[in-house]
UniProtKB/TrEMBL annotation:
Keywords: Isomerase. This is DUF4440 domain-containing protein. InterPro entries: DUF4440 (IPR027843), NTF2-like_dom_sf (IPR032710). It holds the Pfam family DUF4440. GO terms for molecular function: isomerase activity. It comes from Maribacter polysiphoniae. It comes from the Bacteria.
């Protein structure tokens, strides 16, 4: 079994369990769409996100997330809810984001659930009027909404920089 298939199987089981619990408390279940999404469709969420950060638009950066989504930033607590996610990204914009780009490595879907993994580059204004470049990787768990748009329900990322020794 290929590593990608193993990862997709694990993510699908986790998503199915999570969504089954979530749906018990919701109104009628969304009708499943059986057509698999393309890598480009699944990656659109993050491309829109990168464009929003580059445009310094925290509202547009947050709208790609489901209303009840959570982000898991590195070395910080979980941030839950679109309004809180918007505030998080506004703080990052205020701190000096110059731009953000993403590249999808892999993405798959099964019905209304999907995932995307990729790499990112973010550039920031440094304290000494220099430019700080951060590269890293990310994982997004996606759910197709009623309008057919893929929304992030969970997002996690980390830097490629080695851990500081002190």
């Amino acid at each position: 079994m290929k590593t990608t298939t193993k990862i997709f199987t694990i993510i699908t089981v986790i998503l199915a369990t999570t969504l089954a619990c979530k749906q018990e408390n919701q109104k009628p279940e969304k009708e499943a769409i059986s057509i698999s999404a393309t890598v480009a469709e699944l990656g659109q969420m993050n491309r829109d996100f990168g464009k929003a950060l580059t445009a310094k638009d925290a509202v547009a950066a947050a709208i790609v997330y489901d209303e009840n989504a959570s982000i898991l930033p590195p070395n910080e607590p979980i941030v839950t809810g679109r309004a809180n996610i918007q505030a998080y990204w506004q703080a990052a914009i205020d701190a000096g984001i110059i731009d953000a780009t993403v590249k999808t490595i892999d993405a798959k879907s099964n019905g209304n659930l999907g995932y995307e993994i990729g790499t990112f580059t973010m550039r920031f204004h440094g304290a000494n009027n220099d430019t700080i470049v951060e590269t890293g990787k990310y994982t997004e768990i996606l759910e197709r909404n009623k309008e057919g748009k893929w929304m992030s329900t969970y997002g996690m990322w980390s830097s490629n920089a080695p851990m500081p020794t002190e």
